[in-house]
Amino acid sequence: MKAGMEQSRLPIGIFDSGVGGLTVVHAVRDLLPNEELLYLGDTARVPYGTKSPASVQRYATHAADYLVGQGIKLLVVACNTASALALDELRQRLAPVPVIGVVQPGAAAAVNRSSSQRHLVLATESTTSQLAYTRAILQLDPDAVIEELPCSLFVALAEEGWNTGPIADAVAGQYLAGIRERSDVERPDVAILGCTHFPLLLGPIGNALGPGIEIVDSATTAASAVREELTASGLAAPEDANGGIRLIATDGAARFARIGSAFLGCEFAADDIELTDIHPADTGQT
Ligand code: DGL
């Protein structure tokens, strides 16, 4: 069903456990500059990637309900962990508001790029435990060979701003030594950054993997999926709309601004961030 003009002017809601999803905001803004974006970083509860499925599902539900309460026309789950553990639940809960995750777009990008059909997925422990990327890739290429490797410490490095340097190199080297040492025929030709924080560690990850492995992430393909959905549902913002970004976090505005600017690709200050509490007991939601 096509949506009305009023609805098309509503923002796109985007959430992540912290600042990492700003890489997705960056890609959506580049592709759809006249869309209004409402970003929620659940910085009070980051990381999601080491939490149980029940906790991640609960947190994701709180974040989604909060954004829907603000009035959004579409939700992007810009967190691989929440996409892997809570996407179906969120789709049912939010219908008819469309919900787009980042796992399927990332899988599609990898399948497009791979010649050898050997894929490596780097993600958080919670994401790899669900094998969500494996299932998404096999749906697109049933003959693919997929290996999922948990690299949760990359999240802490990115959050700390230690994206390059000897510590990042050492951590990447430790996680990926087994891949680099393999024979050519056993090596993947594509590595998926299955966590929104990992694009910031592109240099150390690329060095540790060695040559011949293309690194892909889901931000650009997720942005394309957003455009397709908006077009199909008649929800795209009118051409006279200016677009913009509203940033909301659940804790630590100063830290969010300091670390988040690198993810978003432009500087912003603590004053640009609204702090909120999204726990149902504090917001009146159920
Ligand atoms: N944003 C999460 C993801 O994409 C990683 C950070 C976390 O562990 O919360 O998986």
Q: Can you put this structure into words, describing what you see?
A:
By secondary structure, the protein is of the alpha/beta class. It has two domains: 153 residues, Rossmann fold (3-Layer(aba) Sandwich), CATH 3.40.50.1860; 117 residues, 3-Layer(aba) Sandwich (Rossmann fold). The chain has 13 helices and ten strands. Strands 4-3-1-2-9-10 form a six-stranded parallel β-sheet, with helices on both faces. It has a four-stranded parallel β-sheet with strand order 6-5-7-8. Helix 2 packs across helix 11, helix 5 crosses helix 7 and helix 5 packs across helix 11. Bound molecules: D-glutamic acid. The site of D-glutamic acid has 17 residues, from helix 4.
Which class of secondary structure composition applies to the elements? alpha/beta
Number of strands: 10
Q: Which shape, going by the Cα principal axes?
A: globular
> Could you say which small molecules are bound to this protein?
D-glutamic acid
Number of helices in the DSSP assignment: 13
Alpha carbon gyration radius: 18 Å
The low-pLDDT segments are none
Q: Can you list the strand order of the major beta sheet?
A: 4-3-1-2-9-10
